[in-house]
Amino acid sequence: RVRDEGAQRTRSGLRALVQRFDPAVVITPQQNILLSGFTTAQKGEVEALLRDYGILTVEELSNVRRNAMACPALPTCGLALAEAERFLPDLVGEIEQIAADLGLGEEHFTVRMTGCPNGCARPYVADIGLVGRTLGKYSVFLGGNPEGTRLNTLYEDIVPAAELPTLIRSILTAYTNTRQSNERVGDWADRVGG
């Protein structure tokens, strides 16, 4: 319910911003909303309005959150077998903490989650892809890349949602200990194999 209220507040804030400034609005394939056409003089007023509604600017988001994506999944999609959109924000919060603990806060890696194998959020090209297999359980894929030119591979199947943070911590710990210079999570996973 809290997340639903937060989403409603975000929608209200974006609506107020669009009505007040009439910016160009672009929704990207990465599920981002780009608002453009503001003048330099409007910057402070726009940022104040965003703060009033609790909307973070892109600079305030962690790299993990900026590069995470989920499909709508349950209860919206009739094909979904598990949660995605409603579950991923909490999981990303845990991954942010794991990344900070391991000194990976500035790393760029993608986490994509879907509620079924159809892969609407493109988990099969993510550094870490999570695919709903049944209620509360996911397949974990590793080794994709952001260009979408390499598919990841199955790392672990039928992982209970509650175990995902522990599994991801072990993956990122191994990455931290064995990666090569400038190697992304997906490149590392592809090199070492699942």
Helix/strand-derived category reads alpha/beta
How many helical stretches?
6
Helix content: 25-40%
Radius of gyration: 18 Å
Distance between the termini: 37 Å
Strand content: 15-25%
Shape: globular
Write up what this structure looks like.
It is a single chain. By secondary structure, the chain is of the alpha/beta class. Helices cover 37% and strands 19% of the residues. It is built from 6 helices and 7 strands, in the order αββααβαββββαα. The protein has a 5-stranded mixed beta sheet with strand order 3-4-5-6-7. It has a two-stranded antiparallel sheet with strand order 1-2. Helix 1 packs antiparallel against helix 2 and helix 4 packs parallel to helix 5. It is globular. It starts with a helix and ends with a helix. The mean pLDDT is 93.
